[in-house]
Amino acid sequence: MNIEKLDNPAWHSLNETHQSFAIGNDEIKFYQPHVCPFGGINSKQPDLHSQLNSFFIIGDKPIEIPDLIIDKELICLQMICSFPIKMEFTENIIHLKEPHKKQLIDLVNLVQPGYFREGTLLMGDYYGIYRNRQLVAVAGERMKMDGFTEISAVVTHADFTGKGFAKQLVAQTANKNFEHNTVPYLHVAETNTGAVRLYEKLGFVIRRKISFWKMTRLV
């Protein structure tokens, strides 16, 4: 299993497990815009072109792309888990499907706006916890490549934090991947120290710092 693929996760996901979502060419590929705002670059190719107005490149600082600028850089920690998570599950965890999509999109974009799209649910399995018919906490799978799955959208509504929902949802998602011989990893903003501590308690370790570069088309 080539762990160095995680240095360029979108590129390898779009060339492997998620190739059905890919648009682009051998130099630069993107997720279909309704699925995910991420793209990946084959760093060996210098002449790149994009028809998208805005997207994120994950990994090393992108080389120059015609008509695009780097709008901002989000520095994250890439964390990886090597063993199944021992957890006492006290909540009823729901496997979220199409009927849950609106509540899922609304909750994730309430807490982490800008990343979760209409088609993001298609990228993998998502799990949630309900209270009084309201979806209050979620976690699921985003980028997938051979041997590795990214855990993402770890979100709890502000009125329901501190109840251990995130721990159980991350453990559920991670352990599901171990059952399928897939290693779970995730990205968390390096400034989000509370989340980093939570993931460390669950058994995730920091692999490296990695940046999300927002690319925006010049007007």
Describe this structure in words.
This protein has 219 residues and is an alpha+beta fold. The chain has helices spanning 9-15, 101-111, 165-179, 193-202, and strands at 22-24, 28-31, 38-41, 54-59, 68-81, 94-96, 126-131, 134-145, 148-156, 183-189, 204-217. The chain has an 11-stranded mixed sheet, with helices on both faces. Helix 3 (165-179) links the parallel strand 9 and strand 10.
Keywords, separated by commas or semicolons:
single chain; 219 residues; alpha+beta; eleven-stranded mixed sheet; 4 helices; 11 strands; 37% strand; globular
Strand content: 35-45%
Number of strands: 11
Major sheet characteristics? 11 strands, mixed
Mean pLDDT across every amino acid position: 94
Distance between the termini: 42 Å
Strands ordered across the widest β-sheet: 1-2-3-4-11-5-10-9-8-7-6
The ordered H/E elements are HEEEEEEHEEEHEHE
Q: Number of helix segments?
A: 4
**Residues in helix, %:** 10-25%
Derived from helix and strand composition plus strand pairing, the structural class reads alpha+beta
Please, what is the oligomeric state? single chain
- Uncertain spans: none
Mass-distribution shape? globular
User: What is Rg?
Assistant: 17 Å
